[in-house]
Amino acid sequence: MALDILHGPGRVHKKCKIHTFMKQICRNPRAVCSRLALSLLFLWLSGSTVQTVSAADRIILRNLKVLTDKTVTSFDEDGVRLNDRQVLGWHEIEKAKISPDKQASFDEMLAGLGGHIYRIRQRLSVGDYEGLLPHAEAIYENYVGRTSDAAYTVLQALMWGRQAAGQREAALAPYLQCYDILRRRAKSEILLPGERRLVFDTQTAITSDITPVWFDTAAAKSEMPKVFQVIRSMKDRPEGAFIYYASLASAAGDDATAGKVLGAVKSTEPPVSELRDIVAAQREILTGATPNFATRHLHDNLASLTEDNRPLGLYWLGRHNLSSDDLGTQQLGLLALLSLPALHGDSQPELAGAALLSALQKLAEMKDVRGSVALRGELLAEYGSTYSAKQVDRQANPEPQP
């Protein structure tokens, strides 16, 4: 049949076909062999092309671009790797049809991560930091210990989201994880949507975004094990991490741990040396320890503190003076605390709010109703998003009991 087709329609004797074909080979064997080789090459290339197309995956991106000439080689929480070494973020993918044996796990990971990361990036781009929180909370555990761009994006969103919601203590662990990612990758930043960037000291891990002072005792106690695990996982532990942990332990009421950790800080240079002295004074003030050598040292050196650390030193000295039995010393404490919002309210809103709260509570204790009401109004009006303002609001409007 095949030979009939080659020689056209009509009745042709099989012997004649073979005889004619053999005669052609004898007359021009090179031409016939060349035609056969070309035919075989064409058939092989055709089969190869069909195989490549059938093996390719179909990936639809959120920007409506469709990828049909690539295959998914692997995927995990960090992203989807293609056969051309391109890596797609889960937030970029709308849906995909891939190898059947991988489809179910791919769809599960896309459903669990893609939407959350996409919305995190949207909210970062417009500066909606409180809106980051539910999405970052939902998936951050997938990225603990990872160092990818996706991990950094989620953990940074968690830090800023918790801060925006007034959860300062809970923002510390994700901050230290972000710091560790950047240090491991030898980067000063990883670009995120929007304009905000994490500002920190690469050597000490101190960031202006988080002042080492805490106001929620229960939250500090709850966060201590999480912060401990993050610091423990660091290869080279910066002394700033010890400052944060010691101040957190002190606020949680664990003075023994605070003292032990603070003893590991050996730096003689600011900002770490100054913060070590401030946290040492904090320990004395919160425990009522005497003699208060650290507090006196802070008092004597307040004027020489760096600009970034002076507000924190002023806060603790104000708190210390308020606890005095001497009226004149109490008034000095009020003056120190009230100077915080006036001088540092823009750069240190949480500290300013805490200073106003301590001052109004002291005035209320001294029966100065007019003064305490005025400070309460300022706290709610100017620092309404701070932890201290929310505490005052809760006291005035307690939640109904079930």
What would your notes on this structure say?
The chain is mostly helical and 402 residues long. Helix content is 62%, strand content 6%. It has a domain at 2-55. A three-stranded antiparallel beta sheet has the order 2-1-6. It has a three-stranded antiparallel beta sheet with strand order 3-4-5, with no helix packed on it. α8 runs antiparallel to α9, α9 (239-251) packs antiparallel against α10 (255-262) and α15 packs antiparallel against α16 (369-382). It is elongated, with a radius of gyration of 34 Å.
Can you give keywords for this protein?
mainly alpha; 6 strands; 402 residues; elongated; disordered N terminus; single chain; 3-stranded antiparallel sheet; 6% strand
What is the CA-CA span between the terminal residues?
A: 89 Å
Main beta-sheet strand count, sense and barrel state: 3 strands, antiparallel
**Rg over alpha carbons:** 34 Å
- Our estimate of the beta-strand percent is 5-15%
| Structural class assignment | mainly alpha
Unreliable stretches: 1-19, 36-54
Q: In one word, what is the shape?
A: elongated
- What's the rounded overall pLDDT mean? 89
- How many β strands by DSSP? 6
